[in-house]
Design brief:
Layout (H helix, E strand, L loop, with lengths): L17 H20 L3 H15 L1 H11 L6 H15 L5 H13 L25 H10 L1 H8 L4 H24 L1 H23 L21 H6 L6 H6 L8 H8 L15 H14 L17
Length: 303
């Protein structure tokens, strides 16, 4: 790890975040340029079909930013999040309520009777692993509902989320009035599609693993290519053990805890439901009291 890249640089807390900021702003320039640069709905559609795969990178960038802020200035962070919303579907304060104060606190709570069941729960009441299609529809469909549910834990964030969403509603209303088809193609479709992409990849993070051991409750994927494209999201066990670790430092932190990570918690490629079911059977055999979850872990906060 190059420690110089973790040093402050201008408005950035860490110099290394020049990379994700450049990606986000490059996507934004292309996305908004397509919207305002042509009157042809066909040209907009063709352009967004080319650009959309690139926008999925912003999902990982937004995820990292909402755990460890990018800019020193709160205003710059909110403006950055405004841009990220139209690429990832993750709104300021809402993502923290759903994910930081939600999933990171509740991912070991898979029981339907839990007062705060995991927002990304994968265990069905009958003891089987949720099929991926059902997981996708449920995780995306309930995403905003969980934000409001978890607002009971952080009413200050819920109030701020209401303001943020009112602003986005006004912006989208203005864009729809200006160019309805262009707004649907360049923004609404991207928001919805990338919420599903985010849920698709999250299916491979925990299903079938321990509900007691934090080091054995997540899959890690150490592929260099995957971690280059997802800003080290593959180091998922390390991320759940200590969510405040910056994305650039996750490989080093993973190395420091690797001896505590079970061998079956390394994954290459996508997790299938049959593989998750087989792992769940092994987990139950190894942890007969797996219905007793570990204590919640502290959340990160974004100023």
């Amino acid at each position: 790890m190059n420690t110089r890249l973790m040093a402050p640089w201008g408005p950035l807390i860490h110099r290394v975040d020049l990379a994700p900021v450049a990606v986000v702003m490059g996507i934004a320039a292309a996305q908004w340029g397509l919207f305002f640069g042509t009157d042809s709905a066909f040209a907009k559609l063709a352009g967004m079909l080319v650009l959309w795969p690139v926008t999925t990178i912003s999902i990982a960038i937004a995820h990292s930013h909402f755990h460890v802020r990018t800019f020193r200035s709160a205003l710059l962070n909110r403006l950055y999040e405004f841009v990220l919303f139209y690429q990832s579907g993750m709104p300021s304060y809402g993502w923290q309520l759903n994910h930081n104060f939600g999933h990171h606190q509740h991912f070991l709570q898979q029981d339907a009777a839990a007062p705060f069941r995991d927002e990304y729960y994968w265990l069905e009441p009958d003891g089987t692993v949720t099929p991926r299609w059902r997981y996708l529809l449920r995780t995306v469909g309930l995403a905003y509902g969980y934000m409001f549910r978890n607002g009971r834990l952080r009413p200050d964030y819920l109030r701020k989320l209401a303001v943020v969403m009112a602003i986005h509603a006004l912006v989208l209303a203005a864009l729809l009035a200006y160019d309805p088809s262009g707004t649907l193609i360049c923004f609404v479709a991207v928001i919805v599609a990338n919420m599903f992409v985010n849920a698709w990849f999250s299916y491979s993070h925990h299903a079938g693993l321990s509900l007691r051991d934090r080091y054995g409750a997540s899959y890690s994927n150490l592929s260099r290519i995957e971690n280059l494209l997802t800003f080290n999201t593959g180091y998922h066990t390390a991320h759940h053990v200590k969510a405040s670790v910056h994305w650039y430092e996750l490989p080093s932190f993973h190395a420091s805890i690797a001896q505590r990570v079970p061998a079956h918690c390394y994954l290459s490629g996508e997790l299938t439901r049959p593989a998750a079911m087989a792992q769940l059977a092994r987990t139950r055999a190894a942890e007969p009291a797996a219905d007793t979850p570990a204590a919640p872990h502290g959340a990160t906060r974004l100023p």
